[in-house]
Amino acid sequence: MKYVSASIVVPVKGNFIKNGVVAIDGSGTVTGVFAEDDPLVREVAVEFHDGVLVPGFVNAHCHIELSHMLGKTDREVGLPKFLSTVMKMRAAEPDEIIADIKRADRSMYEKGIQAVGDHVNTELSAAVKKESPIIYHTFVELMAMAKEDIQPRIDRARDIEFYFEPDRASITPHAPYSCSKDFFKVFRKMIREDNLLSIHNQESEEENRLFRYKEGAFLDFYAEMGLDASAFKAQARNSVQSYLPHLPRNNKLILVHNTFTSLKDVDFINRQGRDVFFCVCPKANLYIEGKLPKILNFVPDQERMVIGTDSLASNDTLDILEEMKVLADHFDHLDFLQILQWATINGAAALGLSDMLGSIEVGKRPGLVLLEGMHNLRLTDNVTSRRLV
Ligand SMILES: [Zn+2]
User: Fold this and answer.
1) Are 73 and 149 contained in the same domain?
2) Which of 137, 141, 307, 376 has the fewest beta carbons under 10 Å from its own?
3) pLDDT per residue over 212-233, tens digit each?
4) By its UniProt entry, which Pfam families does this protein fall under (predicted)?
């Protein structure tokens, strides 16, 4: 048994505790959380740290199999151009891809990340995930615009899903602009109710233009990639309002990015009565589009907010603390305790892991992360993280 204490312990569930003490056993399971004057902890040797102790983070959105693309794409070119670059340049030797997946996995663990929602198109990350101390939920992405592609792509995704731990993998549509209405119709009929969904949503204004008017940079992207755009018709409304009703209604859903989601869209989504989470990936949004989501539109849905890093194709770190700093820096009204909830317990709920991690509570194995260089619980550039457990 180990007793870890810090200047401030933030369990996420419940109030923070000055000089609190966390008892943790050899497996990393929390067996007690105590105030400093608790008679139980006066008797034992306590390891004290100057800093803020928080549970391990949840990275709700990543593509670890793109880790070999670090530094290979230009910034602020907009999503369609970014996508064509990734599609053209992602090919590499499997050994090289796996070596970079391994490096990314280790770095995420060291940065205090305890669980990851990870999108894949291949099985290349399966072996690393199996060995990793991080708990992954793998989303196998599906894209199908032409009718004849629908069934073969679903079959292939199912084959890939099979490489990953059964309870921790599901198949998911990749994005509204890469899936036709016909695809959604087939998809909704064939998935289980416990199949988690995670779809890129309104990452670019071009996506809304495609659905509203059938115009804009996505049409150039389809032409360049030799894709048939005839599946899309002008709908006179934003993308999410067009495709969401076609997604199976009872499946838990993570909407990723939401950079160009309007207040009206948020109302529309909430009226659907779905179990939905909003994931923000601030550094990737700044990298690709140079814009951030209108966070205020979502803040009434606090418990539904989660944070992701996206991939090293659109980010220079896979570090949730760095994403939190960007949010704190750009949105004055968000405080650390709020953002920490998004980065921990909410992400755990989104991935179906809240009974295991996301808060410092008895019976969980959340990991323990020490934040150093923090004053008055403010997230400034000087704050660093260190995994203790
Ligand atoms: Zn993504």
Assistant:
1) yes
2) 376
3) 999 999 999 999 999 999 989 9
4) Amidohydro_1
Q: Tens digits of per-residue pLDDT, 231-274?
A: 899 999 999 999 999 999 999 999 999 999 999 999 999 999 99
Residue 381: CATH number of its domain: 2.30.40.10
- Domain match, 65 and 26 both: no
Same domain, 366 and 289: no
Domain count, the chain: 2
Task: Kindly report the CATH number assigned to the domain that includes residue 181.
Answer: 3.20.20.140
Kindly state whether residues 25 and 156 are assigned to the same domain. no
Determine the distance separating the centroid of ligand 1 and the alpha carbon of 65, expressed in angstroms.
11
Is residue 277 within 8 Å of residue 223, measured between CB atoms?
A: no
Distance 174 CA to ligand 1 centre (A): 8
Identify the domain containing residue 6 by its residue range.
1-55+358-389
